Amino acid sequence: MKKTLLLAEALLVLVGAGCGAPDTETTEGLPETFQTATDGLTVQNCSALTPSVVTASGNDGNLPANTIDDRLDTRWSNLGKGSWIRYDLGSTQSVSGAAIAWHQGNQRASNFVLDVSSDGTTYTTVYSGRSSGTTTEAETYSFAARTARYLRVTVNGNNLNDWASIAETRPCAAAVAGSSVVWRGDFETGNHSQWTRTQMVSADRLQVVPSPVRQGRYALKATVYQGDDPINSSGNRNELVRMTREAVGSEYYYRFNTMFASDFPSAKTWQLFAQWHHEGGSGSPPVEFYVYGEEVRLNIGGDPGVIVWKAPLVRGQWQDFIFHVKWSPDARVGFVELYHNGQLVLPKRSIATMFPGMLNYLKVGLYRSDTVAQRGVVYHDGWVMARSLQDVL
């Protein structure tokens, strides 16, 4: 099963005008953009939310949307105390903090204020402080949980100059007492905002729909036609991306629900509906759920890998999955375990779940061989990532 993926940054589009000279400060030695070009955002003590829209008071050509592209080598910058950037979550949610990675954050400490709002007009200050000035990684600033749709970061210069410059920002969802839930991608926002980005040829290919649903009010309808190729790569696809980037040695439970349309194609080739892809950018992913002919399969290890589970393909009915994984490139450490429709169908099996030196990220939708001519439709619902079985049951 040979598949090639060229990573494409499908950034959210933002209109913003600004003034001021470009933020041209660089680190000594190698430029910072070279040093961090392959790094993505990692947050601590934050169940990260992905905003749907970002706006700002201005910019120097480094756009606000750069702060949600999961890259530490891009940034939003604007000159002047009082410069602000605002994150729209698309709906009111319980927010309890913000994870911010500051541009050149290991060289300067930025003074800033966090405000929240439900209507985008009236704001309440929830945090006022200063970044550490010791790291380019994200720092999490916590506050008492507030119900809000908007989070605004206002920067009042730093210890060296009056630049506001942020590499990445994520609002943090309020923790549920006793819960180990890390992330929800259940579409209950009514849009794609719980996910990092989309890879789709048009909006009708990844629709958030009110019916059919497995739980809650909304589900995802993923549609692929022959020729759909949004990132100029092999195969045909329309997928959502979540930059989970699970650490080596971490252990998680994932719950998700999938339904294959009544006319889902039967083809003796690969049709992926969920995958954890490696950051290397090409080749088969280390973990993939897919349809082959009249079977649903779980393959571990890339191409050819090992088919560790398979079951008959059922159309027109929701299929419930709980996937338990320890992430490691070492087969003596890593393992997988799978529950399907409430039954343990794959007892814990030791196996390498990552490729050496590369973290994984999640992709959901439909990705298939370009030899399949018939339209394919798959529904997804209920995605939850947690640290305990209880929290995904």
Key words describing this protein structure:
2 domains, single chain, globular, mainly beta, Jelly Rolls
| Total tally of structural domains | 2
What is the level 1 CATH name of the largest domain?
Mainly Beta
- By DSSP (H or I, 4+ residues per run), the number of helices equals 1
Approximately how much helix is present in the residues? under 10%
Topology-level CATH name of the largest domain: Jelly Rolls
Q: Please trace the helix and strand order, writing H or E for each element.
A: HEEEEEEEEEEEEEEEEEEEEEEE
Mean pLDDT: 87
Beta-strand percentage range: over 45%
First-to-last CA distance: 32 Å
Low-confidence stretches: 1-38
How would you classify the helix and strand content by structural class? mainly beta
Radius of gyration: 21 Å
What can be said about the biggest beta sheet?
8 strands, antiparallel
The backbone outline, from C-alpha atoms, is globular
Query: Based on the structure given, which CATH architecture of the largest domain is correct?
Result: Sandwich
What is the tally of beta strands? 23
Question: In terms of topology, how is this protein built?
Answer:
Elements: H1 32-35, E1 47-48, E2 53-56, E3 76-79, E4 83-102, E5 110-117, E6 124-130, E7 139-158, E8 163-173, E9 181-185, E10 197-199, E11 206-209, E12 219-224, E13 236-242, E14 251-260, E15 270-278, E16 287-292, E17 295-300, E18 306-312, E19 318-326, E20 335-340, E21 343-350, E22 360-368, E23 376-386
Antiparallel strand pairs: 1-8, 2-4, 3-8, 4-7, 4-8, 5-6, 5-7, 9-23, 10-13, 11-12, 12-23, 13-22, 14-19, 14-23, 15-16, 15-22, 16-17, 17-18, 19-20, 20-21
